[in-house]
Amino acid sequence: MNYGNIKYFDIADGVGVRTTLFVSGCTHHCRECFQPETWDFGFGEEFTDKEEDEIIASLKDDFVEGLTLLGGEPFEPENQKALLPFLKRVREEVPEKSIWSYSGYTWEELNDPENERCHTEYTMEMLKMLDILVDGEFHIEEKNLGLRFRGSANQRVIDVKKSFERGEPVLSEYNEKEIIK
Ligand code: SF4
Question: Which of 131, 150, 156, 173 has the smallest count of CB within 10 Å of its CB?
């Protein structure tokens, strides 16, 4: 798997100060995507043990709340395979930190065993590593700059643990309505 960027001290992509990993590769091709260069699975650099170590070291800082996965598309099948062992490391080495992931796939699509585009042998385990999933493609028609943590109104900030408990997607407290008028 390749990645395009790692942002340290990121305050835009989740709650608090975070480390954000922008993985490469996305097949959604949303109209007016904010970073189409990341659609290419070969974009950027190879994600290696060195990057894993640096991200985990950053997560050990007291003021860093957690890790966010962005893209590109973290839930493209090839990216799931690469990210799952990394997420296991994060959970083992810094269990107190939160993990957020963005995905152009919806909660329902990721949970559907019949969906060959995004449901793989890794998907459920990867989802269970998360605290928050921000789901859905970016819809330019529903773009709203006032939404916190999401670009268009169709996207949802989902509380993953509560969703598994209830067997349906449960919106997080962070799925706020517009915050800017
Ligand atoms: S899912 Fe994200 S990265 Fe992929 S095309 Fe849509 S906005 Fe761009």
Answer: 173
